[in-house]
Amino acid sequence: MCAVMDRGAIRDGSTFGAVYTCNRCGHIWVTRKADGLPRSCPKCRSVIWNKNCKTVKCLRCGHQWISTKKRPSRCPGCHTARWDVPVSPEPVKVRRPAVVDPDLVERIRDLYYTGMTAVQISVETGLSFQTVYSIVCSLEK
C-alpha cells in the first residue's frame, strides 16, 4: 500500500510532485522526482516507510519492535521463537524433610564420628546426600 496523499502544487505553484507519508514516523514530504516511489523516508531513513507496520512486544523479555510481518519469527531482543507465548510460572516445589529411622540416625552419627564423610555415609547407607548432610549438620549443633 502506497502512502501517497495527493499530487498538487507546492509552495509557490511552480513545483509539482507526489506527497508521501511515512507509516513509521508520520513524516510528510514531497518528492522532487515525478516518477517512482522514494526508496526511504527522508526523516527516519526507513526503507519500509510505505508498508503497514505494527508494534510487537515480546511476552518473555518485554522487548518492543516494529514489524511488517503478520507474525514475526523471532524476538530481536532475546531471539526466542516463542515471543508471543507468555512465560508460565514454575510450580513451587515443597520439600518435605525425609523421615529417617532413629536407629539409622544413630548409625549415621557413629559413622560420622569414626571419620567417614557425608558422601561416604550416603553411599554406604543408600540415603541421599542431602538427607545425610542435614542429619550431620543437626549433630554439630
- Count up the helices: 3
What structural class results from the helix and strand content? Answer: alpha+beta
Oligomeric description of these chains: single chain
Low-confidence stretches: 4-12
Distance between the termini: 77 Å
Tally of extended strands? Answer: 5
- Proportion of β residues? 15-25%
Number of domains: 3
Encode the helix/strand succession as letters: EEEEEHHH
Helix percent reads: 10-25%
Quick one: overall form?
A: rod-shaped
Rounded average pLDDT: 81
Rg, alpha carbons: 35 Å
Largest sheet: 3 strands, antiparallel
**Spatial arrangement of strands, main beta sheet:** 1-2-3
In short:
With about 140 residues, this protein is of the alpha+beta class. It folds into three domains: about 5-50, no CATH class; about 55-85, no CATH class; about 100-140. The protein is about 20% helix and about 20% strand.
Q: How is the secondary structure organized here?
A:
Blueprint: E1 4-10, E2 15-21, E3 28-30, E4 54-57, E5 64-67, H1 102-113, H2 118-125, H3 129-139
Helix pairs in contact: 1-3, 2-3
Describe the 3D structure.
The protein is α+β, with helices and mostly antiparallel strands. Strand 4 (54-57) and strand 5 form a beta hairpin. It is built from three helices and five strands, in the order E-E-E-E-E-H-H-H. It folds into three domains: 4-52, no CATH class; 53-86, no CATH class; 102-139. The termini are far apart. A three-stranded antiparallel β-sheet has the order 1-2-3, with no helix packed on it. The protein has a two-stranded antiparallel sheet with strand order 4-5. Helix 1 packs across helix 3 (129-139) and helix 2 crosses helix 3 (129-139).
